[in-house]
Amino acid sequence: MKDVFARLASDFLSAIVFLVIYLITDNVILATSVAIAGAIAQVIYARVKGRQLNFMTYASLALVIVLGAVTLFTNDPRFMLAKPSIAHFAIGVIMLKRGWMLRYMPPIVAENVPEYVTAAGYLWAALMFVIGAGMIAVASTGDLKLWAFYISVVAGGAKILAFAVQYVVLRLIVTSRLRAQRA
């Protein structure tokens, strides 16, 4: 679990840095410049340490540079605020692959209710698309406090709630199926 949070912090580091510096200084140019420099430094540091970088790391870097450049050119923070929505859309597209979630399930779940796990995978994809669309809508307002609330409380809370509901539902269904098989 610690690795998951470290990965999330790493993936959203440029957005976090941007938000913190912008809230402290109210300077879009400074916040964007530091976020771009931080993203580049993050990739260089990982390469120097010999870490294997995947497509999403390079895609994230490209988004920071492109959206950061547009933010610098227009002096408008909404472009940087929209970056996490693109990641949500990309993850949503990946989650549209049939059965993607099966490999993350315990064998008892994957063997007894694979059709429910597949359906849950599609629901997760839909959730990623909804969160991404909401993030664009919130980013378009330019309200940093609203954006910070949305990305942390709404988006994070929706994922935690979805995970909890999925856990309870799958547990109930598996238990019910196993009881029916024994009877």
3D architecture notes:
Keywords: Cell membrane, Membrane, Transmembrane, Transmembrane helix. By secondary structure, this protein is mainly α. It folds into two domains: 1-75; 76-182, no CATH class. The chain contains eight helices and no strands. Helix 3 (28-48) packs antiparallel against helix 4 (55-74) and helix 4 packs antiparallel against helix 5. 25% of the residues are buried. The model has no long low-confidence stretch (mean pLDDT 87).
Largest sheet: none
Q: What class would the helix/strand composition place it in?
A: mainly alpha
Overall mean pLDDT: 87
Described by the principal axes of the CA atoms, the overall outline is elongated
Q: Give unreliable regions as ranges.
A: none
Transmembrane segments: 12-41, 53-73, 79-96, 116-141, 147-174
Protein name: Intracellular septation protein
Pfam family, one: IspA
Keywords: Cell membrane, Membrane, Transmembrane, Transmembrane helix
Descriptive tags:
183 residues, mainly alpha, elongated
Overview in brief:
This protein has 183 residues and is mainly α.
List the helices and strands and how they pair.
Blueprint: H1 2-11, H2 13-25, H3 28-48, H4 55-74, H5 78-94, H6 107-112, H7 114-141, H8 144-182
